[in-house]
Each structure stands twice: as structure tokens, then as C-alpha cells.
Specification:
50 strands, alpha/beta, disordered C terminus, 1424 residues, 17% strand, globular, five-stranded parallel beta sheet
Amino acid sequence: MAPQRRLNQLLIELKSTPEPIGTLKLGDITYEVPASLTPSRLARSSNLLDINDPVNVDNLHFILQKYLLGQDVFLVSQPGPYARRLALTFASLINTEYEYIALHRDVGETELKQGREIRKGGNLVYVDSPAVNAVKHGRLLILEGIEKAERGIMPVLNNLLENREMNLDDGTHIIHPHRYAQLEATTTEQGKVFIPAHKNFRVIAIAAPVPPYPGYPLDPPFRSRFQARFIDPVGSLLSLTNVSPTPIPLYDKLRDLILSTQYASESRSALEVISKTSLPPFPQTALTKLRSLVEKFPPPEELSPAQLARLFLTIHPGLIHAPFQAWAILSRQTEESGLGELGSPSMSSIDESIGILGYSVAEIRRAGDSTAQVTFSPPPGLQPVTLTVAAGQKQLRPFPFTGKLEFNPTMRFMGLLTCFLQAHALAWDISLIPPAMPSTASASTSTLVRVFGQLLGYDAEVIHMYKELGGRELIMRRKIEDGGATTWEPSPLIEGAWAGRLLHLSGLDVIGSTAGSLSRIVQDREIELWEHKRIVAEASAEELSSGELSIAHPSFRVISTASKSLLLKDWLSDEHANMFFPIPSQPMDAKEESAILSATGCPQELVDTLLLFAEKYRQSISSDNVLKNRKLGTRSLVRIVRRLALYPQDTDLQSIIQRSLLAEFLPATEKMNLSTLLEDSNIFKKTPPFNPSPFVADKALVFPEPSSTGGETYATSIPLFDAAQDPEGAASHVPHMDHFYDNSLQTGLMRDIAIDLEILGEHIVLLGNQGVGKNKIIDRLCQLLGRPREYIQLHRDTTVNQLMFTTSLEGGIINYTDSPLLRAIKFGRVIIIDEADKAPEHVVAIFRSLAGQGEMSLSDGRRVRPSLERDGDIVVHPNFRLILLANRPGYPFLGNHFLQVLGENFSAHSVSNPDQESERNLIGQLAPDLDKDLILRLVGAFHDLRKGYENGILNYPYSLRGRYFLVISVSSQLITLCVELINLVRHMKAYPSDSLGDALRNVFDFDIYKPDTIDKLSEILIHHGLQVPHLGIDAAREAAKKKVQDIHFEPKQTDLDQPKEGEHDDKEHSGGNRWAGGTGGRDTAGLGGRGGYKRLYKKGEIKQVSDALKQNVPDHIREKAREMARQELQRRLEELDMSVSEAKGYGQLLTATQAHMASLLDLLEHLAAKEEERVWVKRQIDGELDDSRLTEGLTGESTVYKRRGMEKPEIGRPQIKPKRIKFIFDLSASMYRFQYDGRLQRSMETAVMLMETFDRLSRKEKYVWDMCGHSGDGPDITLTEADKPLTELKERWKVTEKMYMVPQYAFAGDYTVEAIMKGVNEVAKYDADDWFVIAITDANFGRYQISSEELTRAMKHNPKVNTALICIGEGAEASWVTKSLPGRAFRVANTGDIPTSCAAFCPQWWTVEVKRQPVLRTCTSVSG
């Protein structure tokens, strides 16, 4: 009956037309304005547009025309509030009620149709969405952000827009009012109730044009249902700005410049992608901000270049990451308009205040319960400015500052603080924009936000963003009350809006376009809540008491900051610039950073050396290699100098820096560049000391003084944990192990970790290969210290909620149980987060705020805080420590690049494999009876195996765990590392007839189908005197033959005639000399026999004649067999059209690259399709409650949740688009002239490696690739063609021959730049998932005056194409190349490492990017 009651109410509304309250005349249109039936749904914004503005009137006239025609309107507008305010102004003008939906990537059918709720008593009800409410009650539906909705969402509304029809989940069906009037009954036989769409229902959709703005293009059927209206950007810029009667010269000049920029962008087709290289148009709110700024802060007659630069970056923050040409254009325009010289965008104004327009804060005092008065000191010649601003209700922090401060109030800091207060005085929310450089000194972000809130008495709330945070979760969260009824409760954002708090949205950049769903609350202080509730700008006391409307507190403010894990260009959009008042941050200069470091007590000499290196290192990091390198910010430097200040005897600065940067796990070329930077900074490597075993004495863990080659050393004493602080933890959570076998390397590591944990109070991230003892080292340290520890193991499906608590739904009631993480936080324990690299990055990101600020927000509304601020807060115990364990980054561990999202809040350590001496001692302790010579050989062999992995020859990083052959668990042992060796010994003692090769199969059988790997393993074992006759598939078959087919065959007839082919049939033959393909025969081609000239196997059991018979073959028959074999080989070569010398030459090239080929083939084969799509992953045990499964929840089922996630492609699904790759080889005359160093030979080997690897791929359609070269004769010498794969050996040999001959006859000259440009352009035309151009050259650039600028311009010619330059020969000495192109250029000192380098840097691109698939193309450069 409920649907029938709702229907009756709607029919009453349709029949009772409200009396008009007046007549609206708009141009030639007259409209009777009706009264509202629900006044609470009317527009109440305080930011409606001026209806006297001719631009606004024209737009309103158009919308009214369409409204009267019953048509829906689509407003195409640049990002900004104008279009939304235009729609609300129209709603206010005709006094119509409205509904509003902010679209974002997480909007689904529920938000557009109906949701489900459970009421008290267990009744399931359907709640209409704003769209359904609008169509039922005849309201205006405003849809903003159409371009953000994912594919397939907006077509849900297609039928509603065109025919006014929609099926609803509650069984009702909305139909057109005319159709409803024709129906005789309202109910069909099936019981479906028909509801008429209200005749006054209209839609206004709002979207930014795509392109040039990011987003999804319009679905053609959806687009066809609207009448379009383009919003003039110039008109919207001016309409949003209040006209002041008093002219202000600075404003007038800047306004003209802003408008001329807009006109200029339009004249160059602003809606085309090519306009990105010009000066981008200013954001829609630029003039609004500028007008309010100059009105409240009168500008000086003339701004300094730095002040003018900061002013531009404030109103147009996109200039921070715009091309340099854009800044040059702007600089020219400022001078032409009389504004003066424009400073550098780097904003390095050290000697002047960076407050906007030259102002600086002078005084702050309380003015009222929720206001304060701020006085600003002006630039010379102007009067001080005093403004009343919003404030919190807490006591104001005294200003000017007094007493001992926890920060350094430098001119830079006070300038940024002034900018914050100026933006606040203008009633804008603030966005602190990080520096454009990937790695800089600290910008004091957290300190600025905290001090700003304290100065104004705010109750501050930090909301930490994570990637999968949905748009609805930003506003509200689901709650289940006692009894099972469902409801919603406000998010911290909404609670802060009501209470007038200062909200710090930390890491807003990580949620991408979802942040745009907050634009209305940020710009207009209005937003839609749950079940038809709404926050509005103005409401009467009666309306507020009803609960349907509420207002935001006037003191409510938002400050957004970025995580710095994403590049500015990826998130700093016009939409963000319009939402906030952007303030460009300013990193510390060297003097300020030096003062902070020196304050720790570290010697100034070390501080200066460290800062010299930091400057060089930061400059070497670019947007191309930021994912490969750890950032070195001020926080990391402070951690280093604190360590040096407390332990001055630790003078090995290089090892400390390398540990902090995790240098051990850098790619080979990046590691080489780091070593060069260290040496250039006079930081040299020292011999590592020997570390004796630690012991416990006098309530302390003592690490004895290490041995030293020079200088004094001291013992290190770490206080033991006081069990009285956590009696339960000390009794049950301290790890225990009976045996731990110490070695110098791991003892030194334990000492370093203990200092960080217990003395410096740092949190730890510990990386290493598998099996190096990460868990055991931490457990041993906790055991020695008596430290209680908790443990969590992450995986790919770990959620943020799982880290916080265990959620269960029992009888319709959600129950929470604290996780080990929360227990560790409460009781002050160590929490080990294992496999941190396997969890999604957004999950690991929550540890950033927990480690950095001691803050975390729980989904049940509770907060983790450093101190108790509100009831219910969980206070972080001072003994709490985080330890994250993970494998090394990159292939083959296939983990996520989680280090980028952690920032610099963790002290980084790496676990290396012990040196050979430590390993021998370790095994000697574990197996004292084992032959020492065998130990020496085994350790040496596996040392070489590890080295082979590091050099790219082997694919598996053989660790101590995998080192010794049989895997078995032994409890209470430190080193499961060497357990395998013990089991090997046990096996050999129990089964003395089994060989070493039989035991080795337990490890090497994994690589049985990788013959090149098996060959390399065999080579290493033989080198160390470990004779193993069979490995790989031969070992498996040999073992099977020995154990199962132990058959001796002695033929009766043994006389030989002469070698021959034999007759062929399909039967099995043994013995004899007639049939080819038999076993145990004579003269014929077969297996296991004697006297034949070749091996030939068809089928059947192999019967082997004795070795004595094999050897008893006359010499003339042996010679005849050899001759026939040579003739057969010649015949095969003739089929390939190759000579013997050619085959031999190609074979040599092939042999030289077999090992590299194996690793590259393994990588290419296992690169799966990466296209992903965000979907609702349903039937989850936590996440957001799934409306469609609420009824299942009532029965007690737990899988009633859903969460947004990336849907991975099915295993084995073909790539939709291939990867496009072009390789460019240098075939210049210098390659031939200087071939004595092997450069030409190695280039040819590289080409062979590539051709053979791509030919061996099982799915060749995954890649489209080709190779070309360049010489002094031209930039494009075709070696292979993308559409013509080289299937024959002869064709591939001809390519190498061409590579050898072209340099021999080439004229002098260098076309490297032209070849790269041409390659980039050609590759970019291909429809692919990713694009690559890799050039290999001897970098003979100086001779031909090729500058770094030319190279950079060529390689960055098209941003979507990934480019790399490998310099060999003379190029290995061209150090300026890698400095000019960090992350793109690589120096190879040993030309033999070219294939390894190719295989090394390619995986960095292919595994870092998870959204795109590459297409490779290779070119060879020929320079003379």
C-alpha cells in the first residue's frame, strides 16, 4: 500500500496548481511565477549571480526559453562555479524547487535512482534519489560534472530525459504524464504501479568540454537529449567579479592581461590539444580573487618581480607546471602592460617577505567568540590593514610569538603564514601547492597548518585522504543502529562544517577528480546530505529546527595539502584552482635548512657536506626517474644528522646516505649515478667494520665496539624495555627463539635499527630479498630488548578497515574488534607489518600519517591522535613503533611501489645477504661436521648465482633461504636461511647413492624449461668444483632412466657396414641396421646405438648399447659418419641460404646474449594486459554496505559489503592494444673506427638479443616493434620493419651484417637528434597502450656541437612517448648527458653491459605504469 499512498500524494500535487506569486518579465517572455509547495527545496545560495548583468540575463533568457518548451539544457562551461550559480539563479528567479547531484567517478545507479534502507522492525524501504524526487515533484534537477561520471552511468537517465520514463527498484514505473492520463487504471496485472512524471520536471546538466579539460567524452545518445549552451569564458570571468566604482590600476592592468590571454587562447583553438603549449587561460575565479585581494590589501604602486610572480602563481597555479614558453609569454605581456619585470617562477625571494603584495602579519587578537582581528604591516608608503576574520573558540596562540618555539619563524615561514592569513581574511579556503621539483627541502607544510590554526584558536581536524575514498564517503558514512535499522551519520568534513572547525584535507591529490565533488561546499557552503537533508547558506530558525536544512558555521575553513606522491600536472587542475585560494609553497633555502640541521648538535662540517650532496641529488631527480629514487627531504637529513650527533664515531657518511636512499635496490645505472654524486661531494666509501655479537648486561642491550681500520670506536648501549609498562605484552607478546646465529652484517643492522627504534624514536621500513632473515632479525631484536610486538601480514586484498579492526555482522548488528595495529597503538608495542609491498598503495598510505603525525581516522568515527583532544580519541602510546617489511622493489617480486606514498616518515634499512666469510661461519655453526671445503664451494657458487641475478643474467635472486636446496621448516631457528643445506647433508647421508645433482634438483627444477638459465647454473657450479653431470630436464630424465629404466641391452649382431639414414616407418624398432629412428641399432640414424651419423628419435623406450660397443667402431666408419653429418649441416644451411661462416658468426652473437635473452624473454612473456576499469567489487566482508544485499544482512550473512576497485583483466586475456617500441642504433663511422673497444660488436649482440627474444614470444601480438639506425648519411636507416617480422634466421643475420657494413662506408656526421625526433613522431602515431623509443649511441656529440638542450628537446618532444638514451664507448665519458636527462640517459662504461642495461631499465617503465601498455620501437644511431 505504500506505493499507492505515495502515488495519491503526487496526484494531489499535480491537481492543485499553486497560486502565482507574481509575474516575471524577461525580455520578450512573460512567466507567471508559482508559489512553492516545499519552500525548503528553494535556492538559498548567498552567491547568486547579478540579474542586472547583461551576460547573466542573456543566459537566463535562453534557459527560460528552453524551460517553457519543456526541453532540458546542457551548459558547456570551463571549470568553475559560474554554471552552477547560473542554474541556481534561474531556479531562484522562477521560484522553482531544485535537486542537485554532484557527479564523480563513484556515482552509481543507486545515487541516480533509489537506495535501500532498513527501518526499525526490519522493514525494507526504498529512498528516492534527488533525480527521482525531482521527476516526481516537478523540480529542477541540476547535474554537475557530467564529464567525471564513468562510462555506462549516465545512460541510466536516457529514457527519463527523452520519454520521461524510468523503472524503479521498488516496482513502480515513472511514465510520461500524457501517457498516464490515457491509462484507465494505475495498476497492471503484475502489480506494477505507474507514477506520472511531473510536467514541470526539467534538467540542467553542467560539464566542462572534453578536450581540452580532462574527463570522459559525452555519450552521443545522452548528448542528443539536451539543448546546448556554451558559457562564454570572458563573460563568466567578469560576471563573477563585483564591479567597484574605485579604479585600481594594478587590477585594471591585470584584468586586461587576463582577458587578452583568454582571447588569445581562443584564437588558437583553445579547445584543441595543441593549445597546451601556449599560455593557458586563467581559471574562472582569477578575477574574483584578484578583485577582493586588491580591495582589502591596497597594492603598492610598483610590485617587485618576485611579488608579481607570486601574485600570478596565486591566481593561476597551473603556471607552476606549465611549459617555460608560457612563463616567457606572460613575462613579455607584463612588461608591455606596464606591470614591470616578472620574476622567476621558482619564487626564490630570500631577502624579502613573500606575503602577497608585500604585506606581513603584525598582530592578532580576539574580537569576538568566533572572530579575531588581524593587523597586517603594509609595504612602504601604505597604511596598516586591520581586518576582522573568522576564528575558533579556543584560546589564541600569542602573536608575535613568545617563549621557546618548536619551529623556526624565518622570513620564509612568516611570509607563508601571512599568505594563509590573507586568504583567510578574504573568506577563501586554502590550498598549499607543493614545489614543482620532485625533490626539495622542506616547505614546512604540517607546521604551517598547525600554527595557523593555533593563532586563530581553531579546533583543527586532519582528514587523511586515500586513493579509494569515494565521493559519498567524504560526506557521510553508513551506520547500523541497535536493532538493525540503517541510517547515515556525518563524515568528519560535515561535522567540521557544522562545528566551525579548521579541516586539513591531507593528500587531497590522491583522490583525483573525486575532490571536485566538494566544490559546492567549498565555494558556496552548500551540499546535499542523506535522505533529502541539505546544508544551505541561509535558513530560518524554524527550518533549522525541522532538521531538513542546516547551515555551515561561519568559522568553518578548509586547508588542502598534497601528498607529493603525484606530479603537479596530474592533479593541479583548473577545478582545483577555482575551489581554493592557492598559495605556492616555498622550500627552505640552504641557510635555513643548515640552521635546522646544525641545531641537532651535528658538526657543521658534516652538515655542509650533507647539504652539498643533497643539492646535487635533488637536482638529479626529475619527473622521469622520481619513481626509481627515494626523495631526500629535510626530514631525512634531520634523521641522519641526529644520528651523527648522538654517535659521532659513526663517520661512514656514505653508508648512512646509501641506507637512507636504499641504494642497494636501485637499478644499476641509477646506482652508478648515485656513486658519482657521492664522490663529487667528497663522500667516499669506507671499509665496513666487523661487528661482534651483542649481549644483555645491566638492563641494557650492549653492542660491543666494532673493529676499525682507523679512528676510535665505542660500544653502543640500548636500554631494555620496562616490562612494567606493558605487563600483558611482556608476558605473551615478546618473541622467543632458542637459537640465533650471529654474523657481522646482521649484527650491524640490528644495532642501526635498535638506535632508530629506541634512541631516536623512529619508525622503520626494512627491505630485502626473500630469505635474508627480515622477520628473524626483528624478532631477535625484540627478544633481546624484551619488546612486545604485534604482527599483521598484508596481501593484495587487504583493506584499510582490516588494518583498523575486524568487522562482523551478526544478527544485523555490526561488531568491531580492534586489530593488532590498534592494540599496538594503545599499549605501546612494536607492530610488524609484513609484506607491505603486496597491499594496494592506498592501504599502505595510512601509515604515512600514523608515522609522521601520529594521526589516523577510523571508519567507525574514532580518531587516533598524539594526545587526547576529544572524548573517544585513541592516544598513541609513546612506545608505539611501526616496522614495515617488504621485498625489494621491482621485478620479479611484483610488489607495489609503496615507498612513494610513505614519504619520508620512515627510517629506511635494507637487509643484504651476508658476505661469504659470514656465510661460511654461519653454516659452520649449523653443521659443524660438514666438510669445510664443500662449504666453501657451496657458498662461492651461490655468491656467483646472486651476482648473476644482479647483473641481469639470471631471473631468480637466490637467497640464503633458496641457497641450500631442500626447503623444510625448523622451529626456533634464526636462520631458516641455511636449513636447506642441513637437509641436503641429511639427504646425502641417508641416500649415499644419490648424487649432488639429485639434491640440486629441488631448487633448479623450477627453471627446467629455461635451458639458458640451466647452462649458466652449470657453468657456475663447475667453476667452483661442484661437478654435476646433469641439470634441468636432462637431470630429470637421467634420474628417471636410472631408477625406472635400468635396462641393459646387448644386441646379438654387432658387425658394422657403413653409416646410412635407414628406412622410415611409424613403428618402434630396437636393434638392427634397417630402420631409421630406432634405438640400440647400428649404422642407421637413431639413439642409443653405434655407427650412425646423426641422432634421430621417433618414439619408444630407449635401449642403450654398452659404452664398450660404442667405442669399438672402426676409424673409417667414424670418418664416414662425420662426413655425412657435415653434408647434412650444409644442406640445412642451404635451406637457410647461409654459409658456414655466416652461421658461425651469427651463432657467436647468439651465444653471447643467451643469458640476457632469457631474462628479457621472461619479462616480456609475463607482462599481462594492464587495462583496468573501476567497478563495484561486491560480496565483500567489509567496505561500504551494499544496498542490494541489506536483506541478506538481516539473516546474519557477512558478505553484504561492496567497495570500489580496479577490475583486473582475466588471466591470459589478450591486450586490447599492443606496446609500440622503436630501437635506434648508432651506425656512424665512429662505431666502426673505434670498434676495438667492442662497441659495434655489442650493438650487434643487442640487436640479436632483441630479434631473437621477440621471435620467441608465445604471444607476439602483444608488441609492435622495429629497429632502425642512423649514420652521417641520414637519420633513418631501416633495419627491421614493424609490420614484417623476421621469421627466418637468415633475415636476422642480414640485419647484423647491415649493422656491420653501414658504419664501414658511412660519411662523417651525426643524426642522433633527428633520428630520435623522427622515431618519436613515428611511434606516437600508432594506436597503442604505451610508446617507447630507445636509442643506443656512442655519444660523439661534442664533435658535432650537439647540445644537451637539443637532446632534451628531442627526447621530450612528445610527453606520451617514453625515451631512453644509452651512451657507450666515448659516450660513457659524457657525464653531462645523464645530468641533463636524469632517468632517460644511461652511461655504460663497459660496452658488454649494453644488453643488461636494456633489460634493466625497460622493466622500470613497464612495471611502474599500471594503466598503460607500451609499444616499443628501436633505432640505431650512426654518427661519425
